[in-house]
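From the methods appendix. Each design record in this collection lists the tokenized structure first, followed by the designed amino acid sequence. Records were kept in a plain field format so they could be parsed without special tools. The example shown here is representative of the layout used throughout.

RECORD:
FOLD TOKENS (213 positions):
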């Protein structure tokens, strides 16, 4: 058994997959779960985007590479399921050991976040990334390392609350002016908007209570 697991994030430019092109044409952000290959050559895609952007549905519906597009709306987000005839470049990494957890598309660019088990696998993934046009390693850190738990330990917040804070900060939720919405952050976390806001308020209450005690 290999004890070491590393979290890896790649920045991707120039991907011509349907979701990358749709995020550029519809000028929206798309949050995608790991694509699933099928024996018939199609890829199953499951993703979401802000509901207020009507252009995305039209763009995807007009893409000849997309089949059986299904759309539902929940908590201010549209949830999509479809089949794609075009394989995403993340499969090049998956074939050598990259375990994708999330794919985020915006303005035609993407970020792939996932894990690899051990440095030997990481080396193979990096070699595959180096052979893929427009793919760059953004960061690597050890899963469950002490620095990941430092905030929770210092400020007495739960791991879920810490993830909500980190994600909100990363996506510009605390920026002035705000760069994203509560619904977008909630979608990235895979929870409802109300659940995200509750985690945020509880974390802020805990941290502020200690700061101003």
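DESIGN:
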């Amino acid at each position: 058994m290999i004890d070491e697991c590393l979290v890896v994030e790649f920045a991707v430019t120039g991907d011509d997959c349907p979701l990358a092109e749709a995020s550029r044409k519809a000028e929206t952000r798309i949050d995608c779960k790991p694509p699933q290959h099928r024996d018939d050559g199609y890829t199953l895609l499951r993703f979401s985007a802000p509901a207020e952007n009507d252009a995305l549905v039209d763009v995807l519906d007009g893409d000849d590479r997309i089949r059986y597009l299904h759309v539902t709306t929940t908590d201010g987000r549209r949830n999509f399921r479809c089949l794609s005839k075009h394989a995403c470049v993340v499969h090049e990494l998956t074939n050598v050991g990259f375990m994708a957890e999330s794919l985020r598309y915006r303005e035609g660019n993407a970020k792939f976040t996932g894990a690899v088990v051990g440095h030997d696998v990481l080396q193979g993934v990096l070699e595959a990334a180096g052979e893929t046009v427009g793919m760059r390693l953004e960061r690597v850190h050890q899963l469950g390392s002490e620095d990941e738990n430092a905030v929770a330990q210092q400020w007495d917040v739960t791991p879920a609350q810490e993830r909500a804070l980190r994600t909100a900060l990363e996506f510009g939720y605390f920026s002035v002016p705000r760069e994203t919405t509560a619904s977008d952050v909630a979608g990235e976390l895979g929870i409802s908007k109300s659940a995200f806001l509750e985690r945020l308020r509880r974390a802020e209450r805990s941290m502020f209570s200690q700061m101003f005690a």
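APPENDIX NOTE: The chain has a mean pLDDT of 86.
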